[in-house]
Specification:
198 residues, Rossmann fold, 7 helices
């Protein structure tokens, strides 16, 4: 199965081309995500799996951003970048602390063990009142179809989760306040969740 490595030879322009997932899920989901991001000011933020920095751009003006990605060549924004995996945040960033860890449309590459590790690693680098904000593909509706097609047609290892699984993994990582917001397609079919945990 091909995962992150399929982006190694890709340009930022190619990466940003709209896919089936974009049109049906992330574009309509941005109606909920972007307004929340626009309210964030004067924070130190870690963007995990930032890609070309689509969401990072909306945060750049009023915040300090650090990015982590397996394919940092895709991001041309003026942010400090670390090349690495979502499961090795503390190894790469040592004792650095953040007000917010965000990760948009990356967790579908994480199997259950890696998702748990990502949550735990995020918790370790957050300040005491810090938050994790991440999208997670749903097991239902378009989320189910998207993951099935990724695995069977494109031969990409991808994963989706339900609210109970997400909540349990966040609690195991030490998060106590958890909000899970439903994200839907244009036709209101479930596709993903926006999860905010403290």
């Amino acid at each position: 199965m091909k995962n992150y490595d399929r982006y190694r030879d890709m340009t930022a322009q190619d990466y940003d081309k709209k896919t089936l997932m974009s049109w049906f899920c992330s574009v309509p989901a941005n109606r909920k995500i972007l307004p929340l991001l626009s309210e964030i000011k004067n924070k130190k933020i870690l963007d995990v799996g930032l890609g070309t920095g689509f969401y990072t751009r909306s945060l750049l003006k009023n915040n300090e951003i650090v990015g982590l990605d397996r394919n940092i060549h895709l991001c041309k924004l003026p942010v400090r970048l670390y090349e690495g995996d979502a499961t090795e945040i503390t190894k790469l960033l040592k004792n650095e602390k953040f007000d917010l860890v965000i990760s948009m449309w990356m967790t579908d590459y994480l199997n259950p063990d890696k998702l748990s590790t990502f949550f735990a690693e995020s918790k370790k680098v957050l300040k005491p009142s810090g938050k994790l904000m991440t999208t997670i593909i749903s097991r239902y509706g378009f989320g189910f179809v998207y993951i099935h097609l990724a695995r069977t047609v494109r031969k990409i290892d991808k994963y989706n989760y339900n609210k109970t699984e997400i909540t349990e993994k966040l609690k195991q990582a030490g998060f106590t306040s958890i909000e899970i917001i439903n994200l839907t397609t244009w036709l209101k079919v479930p596709c993903a969740y926006l999860t905010i945990a403290e």
